[in-house]
Specification:
Layout lengths: L4 H6 L11 E5 L2 E4 L4 E4 L2 H4 L8 H11 L12 H13 L4 E5 L2 H20 L5 E5 L8 H6 L3 H4 L9 E4 L4 H7 L4 E6 L2 E2 L5 E2 L2 H13 L3 E5 L14 H4 L5 E4 L10 E5 L1 H4 L15 H14 L2 H25 L2 E7 L2 E6 L7 H10 L2 E2 L1 E2 L4 E4 L7 H19 L1
Parallel strand pairs: 3-15, 5-6, 5-7, 7-10, 10-11
Antiparallel strand pairs: 1-2, 2-3, 4-12, 8-9, 11-12, 13-14, 14-17, 16-17
Main location: cytoplasm
GO cellular component, one term: cytoplasm
InterPro entries: Ac/SucOrn_transaminase_bac, AcOrn/SuccOrn_fam, Aminotrans_3, Aminotrans_3_PPA_site, Class-III_PLP-dep_AT, PyrdxlP-dep_Trfase, PyrdxlP-dep_Trfase_major, PyrdxlP-dep_Trfase_small
Length: about 400
């Protein structure tokens, strides 16, 4: 049997996974090799939108697996066509490009923005503006677009034409944007940057500034999209429509898939051979994503996400009234950040480890924020039981 020690023996050490190895999941519960049960508030980093092994996803995968898996984009396939239509019908978009991850979706979005600017205005219009402390992926381009040097430094010369503004600071963006700007890329809620929502005023200003300077507005909804906030996509909360939107994570419910959504007018700049992917839009991934949308894009699930957010916050405030560990709770829907009080700054990992020992899987969003991103259909009983385990971990944290 494989063990956690095999990770250190055989895998490149880009991660430091937990000591236990999950082997079975059902709904919002996971079991490790020793048969120990955990409640899952991590959701595979906001990926497992319907929890583990949801019957609709299992059925879609099994059914498609007996038909056809992969034909490449030399051909098309029925699940990809159906998924594209469904996403277009449900959003501002008129065209979809499928890939395998959020990084690839953002890479496609940024390449499209630069291609549009190049075709319409010339090579001088190429600047990409991004927020400090943002995160847009791990390719060499996207990791540099993300405004976090801890991820981007140490890989030699950086791509040119990228500049950074302060998130939620209209003046900072106003001073930076100009007629050489090809695109502004924003997370409606900064995920890895601490579960920090944009203000409506900031997103509206970004939209107006992009219009003024003929720049495209890209929303990175890799983490916030597909029901996570209580709308299918977070931009719907703000009434601000982007030119390009990237999606991944929850879109496949655990099966790798990403998507870039845009208008027909912009999509025409990605003609045949301009961009591509071998695996993107494969039949297995698209079949699973289509089944997931059947469940998630419904009033019952989306309204339930908002109700569960309120339940989480109410319970967290009661817990914090007892312990005083957190200074704020922020986020939308079932993307929740618990911000540590200053005196506990930098100690989120300690809480995460104690939660694991108490049978609860959680996340961090930087060293000062505990992040919850559970299944969108998690029951209130599971929320309550998970928060009871969270309470026990906090007791041990305070010693």
């Amino acid at each position: 049997m494989s063990t956690r020690a095999d990770f250190d023996r055989y895998l490149v050490p880009t991660y430091a996974p937990a000591d236990f190895v999950p082997v079975l999941g059902a709904g919002s519960r996971v079991w490790d090799q020793a048969g120990r049960e955990y409640l899952d508030f991590a959701g595979g980093i906001a990926v497992n939108a319907l929890g583990h092994c949801h019957p609709a996803l299992v059925m879609a995968l099994e059914e498609q697996a007996t038909k056809i898996w992969h034909v490449s984009n030399v051909f098309t396939n029925e699940p990809a066509l159906l998924l594209a239509k469904r996403l277009v019908d449900a959003t501002f978009a008129e065209r979809a490009f499928f890939c395998n991850s959020g990084a690839e979706a953002n890479e496609a979005a940024l390449k499209l923005a630069r291609r549009v600017a190049h075709d319409r205005f010339g090579a001088h219009k190429h600047k990409i503006l991004s927020a400090f402390n943002s995160f847009h992926g791990r390719t060499l381009f996207t990791v540099n677009v993300g405004g976090q040097p801890k991820y981007s430094d140490g890989f030699g010369p950086k791509p040119e034409g990228i500049a950074y503004f302060e998130y939620n600071n209209i003046e900072s963006l106003t001073q930076l944007i100009d007629d050489d700007t090809a695109a502004v890329i924003l997370e409606p809620i900064q995920g890895e940057g601490g579960v920090l929502p944009a203000t409506p005023e900031f997103l509206q200003a970004a939209r107006e500034l992009c219009n003024k300077h003929n720049a495209l507005l890209i929303f990175d909804e890799v983490q916030t999209g597909v029901g996570r906030t209580g709308k299918l996509f977070a931009y719907e909360h703000y009434g601000v429509v982007p030119d390009i939107l990237s999606s991944a994570k929850s879109l496949g419910g655990g099966f790798p898939i990403g998507a870039m959504l845009t208008t027909a007018d912009l999509a025409q700049h990605f003609g045949v051979g301009v961009h591509g992917t071998t695996y993107g839009g494969n039949a297995l991934a698209c079949a699973v994503a289509g089944a997931l949308l059947d469940v998630v894009n419904s009033p019952e699930v989306l309204d339930g996400v908002i109700a569960k957010h309120q339940h989480f916050i109410k319970r967290l405030e009661l817990i914090n009234g007892q312990f005083g560990v957190f200074s704020a709770f922020r986020g939308m829907g079932l993307l929740i950040g618990c911000v540590l009080e200053e005196k506990y700054a930098g100690r989120a990992k300690e809480i995460l480890d104690l939660c694991s020992k108490n049978g609860l899987m959680i996340l961090m969003a930087g060293p000062n924020v505990i992040r919850f991103a559970p299944s969108l259909i998690i029951s209130e009983n599971d929320i309550d039981e998970g928060l009871a385990r969270f309470t026990e971990a906090l007791k041990k944290f305070l010693g």
